[in-house]
Structures are given as structure tokens and as C-alpha cells.
Amino acid sequence: MGRCYPHLSLEERRKLTKWREAKMPVPEMADRLGRAPSTIYRELKRNYYHDKELPELNGYHALNAQDMYECRRAIHRKMIMHPELKAAVEDRLKAGWSPEQIAGRMRLERHPIRVSHETIYRFAYSKDGRDEQFYRHLPEHRRRRRPRGHRRHNRTHIFDVQSLSHRPDRILERAEFGHWECDLMMFRKEHGKVNITSLVERVSRFAVIMRNEDRQSKPIMEALILALVPLPADACQSITFDRGTEFSAWRHLKAGIGADAWFCDPQAPYQKGTVENTNNRLRKYLPRSTEPTALGSDDVTAPRRHQCAKVGLQRSTKESGHVEDYHGRTGSGEKCISGAWS
């Protein structure tokens, strides 16, 4: 396996600028940065700034060097070199697909020119992507990319619960119907405390969407019981939550419908990935700026239609019955996520 040669960073270029002004020898610069001397010589030559009108400004400057480096990199980006590829990706994003789904579908269909989900994200947050406001087509519409692994944890957690680590394997492997995942979708503070409960069955991906007037736990649990009580006992065996205080009244589930409650580890909501992914898809149609008090049953019709054939991140026909091709044509094998509004 070949060695990895990471590109010089802006911080390293700033050090080179400072050391060059101090007339430090190039081999010493390379030794301090842990680089080969040839790398430093090439950097100083390639990114040397020339100003014909003001020759006194000629020289190696960190910011100019970084700009020249980024311009050269941009020329070779797939999304810039192949406009038709960019147009196809943008079309799928507008249709509600995530970058992971687009990249996975391209890989599954063996497209001659394809991109990874990371390439799509990087283009969206690059200078060219920001100029086009490409980020607006992403599921969460963020103007700036959040660092990986970053998430604010400022809520009180609940304890004395059944940990997900003790959940039976048959639930983990999705071998049995009747096990659900639950989460809340919040909106901007100026819209009040109204929120939405999303409840997704792990095998079928059938989703139930309910409106709550606030985040008090007992009314939320009562709404869950009301939604699931018409179902047979085998269809509501357990529900998985995160450790937010809005789920602290979980014992009502056992008393109301006999369902067990399982909880993710602290600060690990990704462990209930089915409902998290469903929420990301719903955000396309119910962004945080939505006025939740004005929503009614008709307002979830569009999300229900567009969620058809977007079952999690499973793109394999064998795994999910998903037969929609890259151009949006759908056959008879599609699964739909539907919802109920209370």
C-alpha cells in the first residue's frame, strides 16, 4: 500500500512565509515541518506571487499561496470537470435524495463517472459551491459544514433504563416485526413549544407522524399509546428512544400497550439510525423554519409521497425492494413511508 502525502495546510504556509522572511534555509524549513526539501522548493516555486504593476509585492505570501492552491484543486474536481454529473447530482438532491443515497445508487449501477458522498459534501461547502448556494439542496441546509463528531449535548439525561446493549439480537438484526424507533423533530423557538413525534418501524420503515403541543413526557407517551393501541400486540413489542427528558415517562408504555422501552447510550442518538435518517428526509419538507401550529393532515401528504422508495440508506433491490433507478423511474417493487397525523 502506497504512502500518503498530505497537502500543505494554510498554517504550514504561514510558517513558510515567516521563515522565508527570516531567510531560513529550505532544508531547515523542511525538517521543522517534517517534509521533504523538494516539497518546500516546489511549493515556493509554484505558489510564488508575481505582480507586474507593483514588483515590490512579489514574493511568497501564505494567503495568496493558499488561493492559488485551491484554484488548481478546483479545476480537477469532478463536479466542475463534468457539468452533466453536477446537474444529475443536483437534480437528485432537489428530489429529496441524500448524498449517501446518490453515491450508493451510482456505485450500485456502476456509472462510468461517479462521485462519493464526501465529494458532494466537499463541493457544496467549497468556494464554488457556496457561490452557487449548493448547500441549500442538502438535507439539513447548513451554510457551513459541522465538524465530524461534533454535536452539542446540553440536555439532562434520564437514567434507570434498559440499555440498547442488552437488546435481543433479533431486534438488532431486524428479524422480527413490531420494534419501533422514536424521536422528536423540533422547530425554531419563536414558534413556541409545538413539536413533532416521528415513530418508525425498524423492518417495514412504516412511519407515524404526530404533533405535540409541548415536550412534556407524559402527553408524548399517551400519544404514542393512542397511535399504537389499535395494532396487534406483536406489532408493538418495543420502542427505542434516546435519553432526552421528553421520554422519561417511558414506564407508561409498558402499562398502556405492553411495549418494552430501550434507550441509546448517553450522547449516542445515532444508535437509532432508522428514525434519525427518516427525520433527515422529512426535514426536506418540514425545515426548522416551518410554523408547526399551522400544520394539518394535508401538510404531510407531500412528504409521504416523496418518501416512497427512499427506505433508509438501503439501495440494494434485494434488501429493500427499491427499484427506482438513478433517473427517478419507479417500478412496482417500491416501498412507501406513510404517516398518520393526530
Task: Considering the chains and any ligands shown, give keywords for the structure.
342 residues, alpha/beta, Nucleotidyltransferase, domain 5, five-stranded mixed beta sheet, 15 helices, elongated, disordered C terminus
Describe, in short, the structure shown.
By secondary structure, the chain is of the alpha/beta class. It contains 15 helices and 5 strands. It starts with 9 loop residues before the first helix and ends in a 22-residue tail after the last helix.
How would you describe the overall organization of this protein?
This protein is of the alpha/beta class and 342 residues long. It has 3 domains: 66 residues, no CATH class; 60 residues, no CATH class; 157 residues, Nucleotidyltransferase, domain 5 (2-Layer Sandwich). The chain is built from 15 helices and 5 strands. It has a 5-stranded mixed β-sheet, with helices on both faces. Helix 7 crosses helix 8. The longest helix is centred in the first third of the chain and has 14 residues. The chain is elongated.
